[in-house]
Amino acid sequence: MNGTPEDHVETYLRRLDHELRDLPRAARRDVLEEVSGHVEEARAEGAMETEADVLNVLDRLGDPEEIAREAKERFGVRPRGGGAHEIAAIVLLLVGGFIAGIGWLVGLVLLWTSQAWTTRDKLIGTLVPPGGLAFVLVLWSGTLVAEGAGCVESLDPSGAVTETTCEQGAESGLAWLWFVVFVAITVAPIFTAIYLGRRMRRVPPPATVTT
Amino acid sequence: MVVASAQETLLAQMRRGTLVFCVLAILECDEHYGFDLVRRLAEVDGMVTSEGTIYPLLSRLRRDALVETTWRESNAGPPRRYYRLTDAGRAALGGFREEWARFRNGVDHFVTGEAGR
Questions:
Q1: Closest to B35 (Cβ–Cβ): which among A27, A41, A62?
Q2: Which of B:48-107 have CB within 8 Å of A?
Q3: How confident is the model at residue A147 (pLDDT cuts 50, 70, 90)?
Q4: What is the ipTM of this complex?
Q5: What number is the average pLDDT over the span A162-170?
Q6: Other C-beta atoms lying within 10 Å of the C-beta of residue A139
Q7: Distance from B56 to chain A by nearest Cα, in Å?
Q8: pTM of the model
Q9: How many CB pairs under 8 A join A and B?
Q10: Is A200 helix (H, G, I), strand (E, B) or coil?
Q11: What value does the mean pLDDT take over residues A144-150?
Q12: I need a labelling partner for A39 at 20 to 30 A (CA). Which of A7, A108, A122, B65 fits?
């Protein structure tokens, strides 16, 4: 063990601050303030004279990781999720539909086998929208075909097309509505991916003390 | 081996769950600052293994409004944050006290009493 007593304390508090990074801000500040207050109290008592004393005080406080684990449990914060499993699930749900069609299904399996999400999150990930971006592409192309079908071709007696009239005008109000709906559907998979990314490590805070 | 570790987990969880009320009970009659509270808990064998783990608990109790805090100057050292029970904290402690007595008596009846032999 090398270094001055101050170094030990500083290193300890820095480690603690780092370990507490996933906590709500107020809780992180509370714990850090109180633990460093604890050290100051020990110092004021004269329990921090030698290096061995300091190490003893820190040892009794416990490993920063252990304090952080306790804090996460008390505040219902799950340890940082976001392993390769979850990242793969999000990516495949978003663009997996383009990979021979089964990429999205693989993403779906990964989604439902992960413990980083609640059932509600998983339902959103599954249904908004099923197939991810590939679904949007299919929808877009389907609509373009449908719009083409809305055109009326005038033929001359020989059968050659003389004029193509597409119905517009009367439907332009409706067309606007469709446009808005389509934009919403297009961005939905992206929002879902972001949502899943943010929800990854959170669980609802457990009820602590109730009467 | 599995049995032993399951038992350890259970004991740890019981300790964690009841520790909340031990803290509330210490604060029942008088307010205390963190270091003082931690020392009182650590004095009793088997209650706390790592003293630092009390502080997240105190923070959570404060967020749940079972305790409230005030800063006071100290004549030997840094300012201290004093913890005090709120009415809600007092009610929680009272409720637990009754339940605990019933639970403890029930378990004692079988585990240490005549019924267990």
A1: A41
A2: 49-53, 55-64, 66, 74, 76-78, 80-81, 88, 91-92, 95-96
A3: low
A4: 0.88
A5: 57
A6: 16
A7: 5
A8: 0.63
A9: 100
A10: coil
A11: 62
A12: B65
